[in-house]
Amino acid sequence: MATPTSSSPGRPSFLQADATLQRPQVNPVDLRALEYVDSYDHNLMCAICHSPFVYPVRLECEHVFCQRCVNDAMSHQDRDSRVYSITCPSCRRRIENRAITPVPKILSHILDDLRVKCPLECLGCPEVKARGDIQDHVNKYCAYAEVKCPSESCLLTVLRKDLDEQRCLHSVMKCEDCESSFMERDLEIHRSRHCEVGKASCPDCNAQVLLRDLEGHIECCPDANFPCNAAEYGCDFVAIRETLDEHLKMCPLAKLVPFLRMQNERLEAHEAALKHLRHKNSILETSLSTIQETLSPSANLIDAPSSSAADSDTGPFDSTAHHLLCLHESLREEVNRVSAAVSEVDAKASMMVMNESLRIKEDLSHANAVIGSMRMQLHWLMSARLQNQQRVAIVRAQSSGDGLGSSTDAGGSSGSVELPVRRLSDSTRQDTKL
Amino acid sequence: MAQKRIVKEYSELQKKPLDGMRISLPSEADMHQWQILIDGPKGSPYEGGVFTLHLSLPTEYPFKPPTLSFKTKIYHPNVTNDDKGSMCLGMLRADEWKPSSKIEAVLSFAKALLLEPQPDDAVEGGIAREYKENKKEFIKNAKAWTKQYAKK
Ligand SMILES: [Zn+2]
Ligand SMILES: [Zn+2]
Ligand SMILES: [Zn+2]
Ligand SMILES: [Zn+2]
Ligand SMILES: [Zn+2]
Ligand SMILES: [Zn+2]
Ligand SMILES: [Zn+2]
Fold this sequence. Notes:
The complex is a heterodimer. Chain A is mainly alpha-helical. Chain A has helices spanning 14-20, 67-75, 105-113, 131-141, 184-194, 214-220, 241-250, 252-299, 303-314, 320-394, 401-406, 418-433; strands spanning 56-58, 64-66, 85-87, 94-96, 101-102, 115-117, 128-130, 146-148, 157-159, 172-174, 181-183, 199-201, 208-210, 225-227, 238-240. Chain A starts with 13 loop residues before the first helix and ends with a helix. By secondary structure, chain B is an alpha+beta fold. Chain B has helices spanning 2-15, 103-115, 125-133, 135-149, and strands spanning 21-24, 33-39, 50-56, 67-70, 86-87. Chain B has a five-stranded antiparallel β-sheet, covered by helices on one side. In chain B, helix 3 packs across helix 4. The interface between A and B is medium-sized, with 16 and 13 residues. The structure holds zinc ion (7 copies). Chain B: It comes from Lepraria neglecta.
């Protein structure tokens, strides 16, 4: 990684150019490594990476982490145990692998609204964007993102801001001062920040200073001209430091500067807060309207609250929060009514089911009785026939077996009639038990 | 990712230091080794002493627990008497460590341990026995060591 800064002059050193411009990985942007501008609720912070959640998931124990943090945690747990389960990093409960569920959409929206600095800030990009838009910013708009060189024949990349030049910036050039070689696109950065030889004269005191130190020198140059502190509020006094100090003691505007600045900051903070609230409000409104839509079949049952909500939609209202509360209240009533209706229907249905099942049970027992008696009769018939056949086979002198075998009526004629009758009563007793 | 969390925890502790503790990095380049100076808590036999602790964060942090050791000799049932001064109990044990625990909690835990040793979880059996059976003697010895090794 580290490259010698004292590479032999004259030789094109691409490595050196790389070292001066270390680029963070932005494809994809690691959202956990971003710098957040807003302060955020500590409940939105992942307990593992200590950043606001990125693609959060919820474990069975209701603890929430970034998807990638859970994966990392899993990969650090024992090999045999992690196949089916994971130990929750917060409460050490064993969680089945599949018991990982997504979190409500609204949480992702809140997280995506957090403002972050562009990951290419270190290269100079000043942009601050909502986290949800930052990948888009880097891919499509960021002036400091790498894009292919406009020259067809060149395979290297340039920064997007340099695209306007419409030519290849990869030819090797020499720094006029130190003779090291650089690609053209890196030369400017070398000259203004790193070159150890190049000098420039201060526009105020004409002293010769290193080009890279010029900015610092102007800050403390005794001859440099500075505007009055209150320049942005209307004072156009410009002088060298010493005179300026005297002026500052008398300038009424300069005295007001802290106050004005505070006011400005407050205004800005209020504007930002307002914007944030507006956005939040619109999210809440859309989610409310989707809730209303899903409830709409029941809405015609209770049209009073929904129509009042529609009224307040058109009319002006003094505060959005109040409006939302009204909506919320009417929705709550609606839900209450629906749940009452549901429980009523539920009770009715269960009564019906009970009655029906009682009836069916009776029918069933009746059928059982019938089947039992049929079985008895069949048994009786079979045994009677068997007996008959035996009797026919052994004693031919007895009464004819034809009548007995062919019809049930014949059963009454023989002495064995008592047997099936007794069994019949037996089976009916069994059936009543059912 | 771990690096960022460590930097964040460090700067938070610098901004809002724990009572009676000062944290620094022996080497600016290595965020994984911390040095902690901890005042002996009031009401404990360590009162009046300043103890140097070393906190080492493994590369797998926060998935593996940090290790905490006393660089200053201390008469305590849960700290080894050798030159390592290591301690390993409670939340610092690998099988009880939670990745969501913060270093702040680890340091508070160490401080609580100075106020109230846990003789049932001891590494120095002799001191633990003395702590349980002859508290007076324990306090006397602990005070003597504090005076000898942990002077301000
Ligand atoms: Zn995380
Ligand atoms: Zn949990
Ligand atoms: Zn950018
Ligand atoms: Zn090119
Ligand atoms: Zn140069
Ligand atoms: Zn100058
Ligand atoms: Zn002025």
